[in-house]
TrEMBL record:
Keyword annotations from UniProtKB, A to Z: Membrane, Transmembrane, Transmembrane helix
Species per Swiss-Prot/TrEMBL record: Clostridium folliculivorans
Transmembrane parts of this sequence: 12-33, 53-71, 83-104
Protein's name according to its UniProt entry: Uncharacterized protein
Length: 105
């Protein structure tokens, strides 16, 4: 019985992008979000009014999760793409609940 090996391709980027999205939303210490530090280093705003208001980092992470889903869906025959797609659905549901119920740090 031959085992079919999936090839590495664009779909393999799906779980990688999902991990990057989770890194963007990870907080440590005194509620410092790692994504805020990364965005500040690129000169992008993390908050709408300094350190208060709308937290843009969450929306950047949400966009990356959506992109990870579509990459995993389109290239499902690539290695780890299906796992990235299914994980993106789970994370997308969690982030949507956070946005709806305003449980953002």
């Amino acid at each position: 019985m031959d085992k079919v090996r999936k090839r590495v391709g664009i779909g393999t980027c799906s779980p990688i992008m999902l991990v990057l999205a989770l890194i963007l939303s990870f907080s440590f210490g005194n509620n410092i979000v790692l994504g805020d530090v990364i965005l500040d280093s690129f000169g992008l705003k993390a908050w709408s009014n300094g350190h208060v208001g709308v937290h843009y980092t969450l929306f950047y992470a949400l966009a990356m999760v959506v992109i990870a889903y579509f990459i995993g869906d389109k290239y499902e025959d690539h290695r780890w793409a299906k796992a990235g797609k299914n994980s993106a659905i789970f994370v997308l549901a969690l982030l949507t609940l956070i946005i709806i119920f305003n449980l953002v740090f």
